[in-house]
Specification:
The structure holds three protein chains of three kinds. Chain A is an alpha/beta fold. Helix content of chain A is 33%, strand content 11%. In chain A, β8 and β9 form a beta hairpin. In chain A, α5 runs parallel beside α10, α6 packs across α7 and α10 packs across α12. Chain B is of the alpha+beta class. Chain B contains four helices and nine strands, in the order βββαβββββααβα. Chain C is of the alpha/beta class. The chains are: A alpha/beta, B alpha+beta, C alpha/beta. At the A-B interface, α14 of A face loops of B.
Chain lengths: 495, 131, 448
């Protein structure tokens, strides 16, 4: 079987043949009257599951090894995705999470049996509190969006405790879509605030909309343009004066970790993305983890269960927190990811944590300096760890940001984020992170300059990209019009 | 009341009066903004709709637009062709890509709508705002 | 400070700073108000070189005393199954685990095809038409199912949830629903351990829009989905079946064959390490007619500009990054790498192997139960059919005594089911070898 890109890798089902065995199952080894005497016939499946293939171990290994080669990944090259923080995933993290003492622990083991895991969790909470300046921390949420929802629910519970849950959450128009989605899920209405010409929160707009019905403002700091909301202390004060809370989306924490702390800025709630700032791998879309830090007034509302210390070096899980919002997921948290993040923080140490932001911001500003004459920069405010260009200088050639993105694939570089922020039409949101050296950045700059030239000389060439990837541009319209979401054993019976 | 020509709403729907019923769809500008339409969700026959409220959605690969009822009334018919061929909305937005026919409860509501020239100005202003 | 994770050389740092126009790294942060900038380093330990880091983590992991795998009989929503070594071979390929969400499908075909295969197998296992590319866990899957039911059947307010649904899943549902105008009513169970159908009949009224049951349920009993289907008839009520031991789907007739609308839950059993509770693998499958209401990411098949088959994330307009406040859910990530593990696991075991494995589980569970039955002081209060887990009564210190001898049975049921004080769940899988079963029986006998 060829391993070039010309032949598509068959679906495993297309390789299924009767009699092939992937693994030997142990025999039961005990006396038994047989399945049909143990369970009533009408509960048992009568037909085999045709969606499960019959293949050998060799084929499964080859199948996935070949599939892996169709993927780009951080370990292969540059991924300047804005607000995603695609930094290097340290390998020792993988080793740590797989230690048998950690990996084999069943969530229902008695507390006494898992003191190592519990201590690690407590350590991690303390470290994250120190790094963020918050009074309390929960490690439960499974992802950033999950953390956001947890955070907004805590805000709501705190308001309810004072007699009025309030009605609205204010969100800038530059925000990521999870912000309004989470607010609505928690039972609030969303009021959008227009950004000012610097791309930051318009203070007049804020003052205008801030009333006793507002439960909170959800900010991203720095915002999705990479600009620090320098009025943040004033914003916090205004909100607190009206009894409202300041929520901070921590997706961009890589910009100022070790330089400043949200807890010192008047922020009341912030979720962290461990799969961004704290190096846990993206895994092709997850799992991640979204711990949430809170200021003192909100500590009581943190989810359960929590790790509590019962003595010197003794820990247990407790649900005994009557004001808690409750459970937000099963068991304690995405412990495997928490272990990876903990390992990373220990590897960086106090200087390393600061070094992350210093170098991330330097890298981003270097790219900004060298690309600002090539692509349009809509907002010229100083930026931190990411910068947003757009495609408008090439509008006359009818080449869009998506085309530039696809052409970059031919250079072995993952494109920047192109789908947001919505306030920049045709956005190219670039975040290099700190784990790229100058050569990689220069190669990216060279590629972008090359593409800019191509847009001038031969726009159609750019519009038809990519050329050298395993597949050419895919028809997403057809996929949405006629969704085919699975293989079917009988094509005629396609659902 | 007789409406000689097509009228337009600020939410980019076009409206035509025929035999006392109101037929409407989305405009060329709207379908351009959306991109290739992949799915349309329309109200059922007999459903009551209120002017300005959402009564369906139009989905493209990159966006979902709410459909706002330009008038209040009862739904007479929704365009069944769009289930199999949503692309008609892009190809022929004023013809085969029509969306819904409504039996209006208050013909006066049509008075406030824009005519061809006003809508053209409105679209030009929207395009300005974008850049 | 230099560090292995910071690849910049000293000269490059200096030159880049010059090009950017700053004389010190501190200058880069001039837009952050001086009053909030930290004046000293954080109060966290110094960096550990990898050698010491490894020693530290190892020490922590050794403080866990888990007992022998074969003598652990823990259930309650997480199951100890053998994880084939090939899974890590695949998961540790950098192209899989260090790749990003496949928003640029042209360079993500590996991950996307794996998701497509995952969706196919989950649909097959549940007897449904389509499945999504995974959710966080079983608890949030239940929440998503109830939310979806509310979108399909509008204007009603009551959802019926069986009391034998995993207590943590019910708690999570309560947390999410507290901000919505919905009512949850609990369906009681009857003597044999399954849903009380007579009681259920009395609870079904005009305001009910959904019903959610777990099978096998938290007490280990397999629910009779056929009877529930008959009872509900053609009432417009959304039927949700939750499963937290997905291996059971290989042996038992699945929810899709009983007219259920959603089959969802926890697929940790398919090659995901126990890891003290996470990350796990929520799964979600439904009928074709509800396609556009599916939460989470979905992978679909299409063609490229040269006609070649390829895969893309599709129907993304339902998701938060486009629909924003009108999204079907606020979920952003899925658990892609866990779904990949499950995909490898399911393809390796395959049609015959998975069935065999399920049979070994149920044979051993029934065998252990029958040998423990009749030992003085030990009881099995529920007569309903089981897969690989059941309720066992171990009063008068018997549980602690067995624990002392190295047998971990649990979790305890008393907190969530007061009528089952001194009772525990006992799960038996292929990891509990026959010798251990015999030894447990001998130990139990010696207690009475």
């Amino acid at each position: 079987m060829k391993t070039d890109f010309k032949t598509p890798e068959p679906l495993i089902f297309e390789r299924s043949r009767s009699g092939k065995e992937g693994i030997h199952v142990v025999e039961s080894g005990v006396e038994s009257p047989g399945i049909s005497n143990l369970l009533p016939a009408d509960l048992l499946r009568s037909k085999p599951i045709r969606e499960l293939p019959e293949v050998s171990e060799v084929e499964v290994v080859r199948h996935f090894t070949r599939l892996s080669r169709l993927n780009h990944a951080v370990d292969l090259g540059f991924y300047p995705l804005g607000s995603c923080t695609m930094k290097y995933n340290p390998k020792v993290n993988e080793w740590a999470a797989r230690l048998p003492g950690f990996a084999l622990a069943h969530p229902h083991q008695p507390d006494i049996a898992v003191q190592g895991t519990l201590k690690l969790m407590e350590n991690l909470e303390s470290l994250l509190k120190e790094i963020t300046g918050f009074a309390g921390m929960t490690l439960q949420p499974a992802a950033g969006a999950h953390g956001e929802l947890t955070g907004v629910m805590m805000i709501r519970k705190a308001h309810e405790d004072r007699g009025n849950p309030r009605k609205t959450i204010l969100i800038p128009d530059s925000a990521h879509g999870t912000n309004p989605a989470s607010a609505v899920f928690a039972g609030y209405e969303v009021k959008e605030l227009k950004s000012n010409e610097r791309g930051t929160v318009d203070m007049d707009q804020l003052r205008q909309h801030l009333n006793e019905d507002v439960a909170a403002l959800m900010l991203t700091v720095p915002n999705t343009l990479g600009v620090f909301e320098d009025e943040i202390m004033t914003i916090a004060a205004l909100l607190h004066e009206k009894g409202a809370y300041l929520y901070c989306d921590g997706a961009n924490f890589n910009a100022f970790m070790g330089i400043a702390r949200p807890g010192d800025m008047g922020v009341d709630v912030m979720h962290l993305n461990l799969h961004k700032t704290f190096s846990t791998p993206h895994g092709g879309g997850g799992p991640g983890a979204g711990p949430v830090g809170v200021s003192t007034p909100l500590v009581d509302y943190l989810p359960v269960p929590r790790v509590v210390r019962t003595g010197e070096q003794q820990y247990r899980l407790s649900c005994d927190f009557p004001k808690s919002v409750g459970r937000v997921r099963s068991f304690f948290g995405n412990v495997g990811m928490l272990i990876r993040a903990y390992t990373y923080i220990c590897a960086l140490g106090k200087e390393g944590i600061k070094g992350v932001s210093e170098r991330a911001v330097l890298n981003a500003n270097y790219l900004r300096a060298r690309l600002k004459d090539v692509f349009n920069l809509k907002y010229d405010s100083p930026t931190l760890h990411e910068v947003v260009f757009d495609d408008t200088s090439y509008a006359s050639r009818n080449v869009k940001n998506m085309d530039i993105a696809k052409r970059l694939l031919d250079f072995g570089i993952h494109p920047p984020t192109v789908s947001f922020p919505l306030i920049v039409h045709g956005a190219l949101m670039i975040e290099p992170t700190e784990t790229e050296d100058r050569e990689e950045l220069d190669a990216f700059i060279a590629a972008m300059k090359q593409i800019a030239k191509e847009i001038e000389m031969d726009p159609e060439f750019v519009r038809q990209a990519p050329y050298t990837t395993p597949v050419r541009r895919l028809d997403e319209v057809a996929a949405a019009r006629n969704p085919i979401l699975r293989w079917c054993p009988d094509p005629e019976e396609k659902p | 009341m007789v409406m000689a020509e097509r009228k337009y709403t600020t939410t980019h729907e076009w409206v035509e009066l025929e035999d006392g019923k109101v037929r409407f769809g989305i405009t060329t500008y709207a379908q351009e903004q959306l991109g290739d339409v992949v799915f349309v969700e329309l109200p059922s026959d007999g459903e009551t709709v209120s002017r300005g409220e959402t009564m369906g959605t139009i989905e493209s690969v990159k966006a979902v637009s709410d459909l706002y009822a330009p008038v209040s009334g009862t739904v007479v018919e929704s365009n069944g062709e769009l289930e199999a061929s949503p692309e008609l909305v892009n190809q022929d937005p004023y013809g085969k890509g029509w969306l819904v026919v409504v039996d209006p409860s208050d013909a006066g509501e049509l008075e406030g709508l824009m005519d061809e020239a006003s809508y053209a100005t409105f679209v030009a202003e929207e395009k300005e705002k974008e850049h | 400070m230099n560090h292995p994770y910071f690849p910049q050389g000293d000269q490059d740092l200096r030159e880049m700073m010059e090009i950017v126009g700053v004389s010190s790294l501190e200058d880069l942060f001039r837009t952050i108000p001086e009053s909030i900038r930290l004046k000293s380093l954080l109060n966290v330990p110094r960096a550990l070189p990898e050698q010491r880091l490894v020693a530290h983590l190892d020490d922590l992991s050794q403080r866990n005393c888990l007992g022998e795998a074969s003598k652990r009989f823990l259930g309650g929503g997480a199951y100890s199954h053998y994880i084939p070594s090939i899974i890590d071979t695949v998961l540790l390929r950098a192209e899989f685990y260090t790749s990003y969400t496949p928003y640029q499908p042209e360079i993500s075909q590996g991950g996307l095809q794996a998701l497509f295969e995952f969706q196919t197998m989950i649909a097959g296992l549940t007897g449904m038409d389509v499945a999504n590319a995974s959710l966080y866990d079983g608890a949030t899957a239940l929440v998503e199912a109830v939310m979806m039911a509310g979108r399909v059947i509008k204007k009603k307010k009551t959802v019926l949830v069986s009391r034998t649904m995993h207590p943590q899943y019910r708690q999570v549902l309560t947390t999410y629903l507290q901000n919505m105008d919905l009512v949850v009513k609990e369906i009681p169970f009857q003597g044999s351990g399954s849903v009380d159908l007579a009681a259920l009949a009395g609870m079904v009224d005009e305001d009910v829009f959904a019903i959610a049951v777990q099978t096998p349920n938290y007490l280990g009993v397999i629910e009779n989905l056929k009877e529930i289907q008959n009872l509900l008839g053609d009432r417009k009520i959304f039927k949700i079946a939750v499963t937290s031991e997905t291996l059971s789907l290989a042996l038992l007739e699945p929810p899709g064959h009983f007219g259920f609308d959603v089959a969802c839950g926890e697929a940790q059993s398919f090659g995901i390490p126990l890891s003290y509770g996470g990350p796990y693998l929520g799964f979600f499958a439904t009928r074709q007619e509800y396609l556009r209401q599916l939460p989470g990411r979905i992978c679909g098949e299409t063609r490229d500009s040269e006609g070649k088959r390829g895969f893309v994330l599709t129907l993304s307009t339902r998701e938060q990054h486009i629909r924003r406040e009108k999204a079907t859910s606020n979920i952003c990530t899925n658990h892609a790498l866990c779904a990949l593990a499950a995909t490898v696991y399911l393809e390796l075991y395959g049609r015959k192997g998975l069935r065999q494995l399920a049979e070994v589980n149920t044979i051993r569970a029934h065998h252990l139960r029958s040998r423990l039955e009749g030992i003085d002081g030990i009881s099995f209060p529920l007569a309903g059919p089981i897969f690989n887990e059941c309720v066992i009564g171990l009063p008068d210190g018997k549980h602690e005594e067995l624990q002392k001898r190295g047998y971990t049975i649990g979790p305890a049921l008393g907190d969530d089911y007061p009528e089952f004080k001194d009772h525990y769940l006992m799960a038996v899988t292929e990891m509990n070898e026959p010798e251990s079963l015999s030894e447990l029986v001998d130990a139990a006998r010696s207690l009475s």
